Amino acid sequence: MLVSASAGAALGAVRVARRDVGRLIAITSAGVRDDDPELALWYRLLVRPLLRDIYSDMRLMEDTVRTSGLDWTLVRPVLLVDRDPTDTYRVRDDATPRRGRTITRTDLARFIVNEVDRPQWSRRTPTLAQ
What we know:
By secondary structure, the chain is of the alpha/beta class. 42% of the residues lie in helices and 20% in strands. The protein contains four helices and six strands, in the order αβααββββαβ. The chain has helices at residues 2-17, 41-50, 52-66, 105-117, and strands at 23-27, 71-77, 79-81, 90-93, 102-104, 126-129. The strands form two sheets. It has a four-stranded mixed beta sheet with strand order 1-2-6-4, with helices on both faces. The chain has a two-stranded parallel sheet with strand order 3-5. It is globular, with a radius of gyration of 15 Å.
């Protein structure tokens, strides 16, 4: 379980270093939420079963972060694509924006940088899509 183990190691390093780390922003996936009605039917029937173990690991990582004692934000993008940024992405808390299927990697990165500079999604799970 690479994702959850990595989160545990990162949180362990913070504790060992005894640094004043107050916030953690982690990226998981919109697919983590089992009951998301906005995920396409083909995705729920074909892809989710294939990625069952990966999503389970991501859920474990999210639980680890939530119980860490840090201020956290768990960013859940939909399918990442290599295109020019749009700067028109949409965000919903703990649910995929309506008909949201993709987001550019640059838009995801910009959301995270903005969140670092101006926290608005503390202890929440924003899902991003175009």
